[in-house]
From TrEMBL:
The keyword Nucleotide-binding applies. The keyword Nucleotide-binding applies. ATP binds at residues 172-179. It comes from Prevotella jejuni. The active site is at residue 168. This is Fic/DOC family protein. Keywords: ATP-binding, Nucleotide-binding. Residues 84-226 form the Fido domain. Transmembrane segments: none annotated.
Amino acid sequence: MVAEYQEKIVLPMGKKAFREYSEILFSCHSCGIEGSSFSVDDTRCLFEEQLGYHPVGKSLLECQEMADHFAAYEWMHNHLDHPFDVELLKTLNRLVTLRTLTYKQADAVPGEFTTVDMAAGDTVFGEHEGLVAQVPRLMSSTAEMMKRGELHPMILSARFHGFFEYLHPFRDGNGRTGRLLSNFILLRHDYPELIIQKEDRQEYIAALRTIRTEGTDEHLIAFFFKAATKQMENALAQKKQNSRTMFFF
């Protein structure tokens, strides 16, 4: 299906148009998973007009969060040759939280690891010193697996994501940063980006939770494959539906 998706969706759009299409969808859904109320249309308008556009009923914080996500996404795409290391991780987190972190955590620094223990939703994470200390090994071992090419890129992407979210090393932006890095892995292997739909948030969170509760990432890996298949099938179905001959009068 990947080959068909590349042939019928990616190539006919052209590199620039497809990247913009992906940036808008990915940013909308990735921020939406974290609570943003932006629709795809809101996201597209902000992408086109930047902070000159302020959707009715949306906070300035939401607008800045989305603008920061655009900046992180574009930086990542322009630096796909960057080593998969802690510097890459910190840079993406810094860009993702640049104009919003101090509103939420006045003492925190964008792109710097947490100095306090973390909680998110109903999850209390482990002692932050021990978790942060594991980050360099996660980055280097993932880089080594990317180099060796022994794992399917989707499996590697999902496994990295699960471990990263388990470590939860930043005060904010862990989800958005983790999803960007998972797509960095896919893009480096010439695979389409994975856009986890905000409507699938509960299933996604449940799959992440099983890493802590059951000690397995098989549910997250299955979710990644399912989400990727759904994404490609939907795009191909739209292309077929909207390519039908129309009869006018």
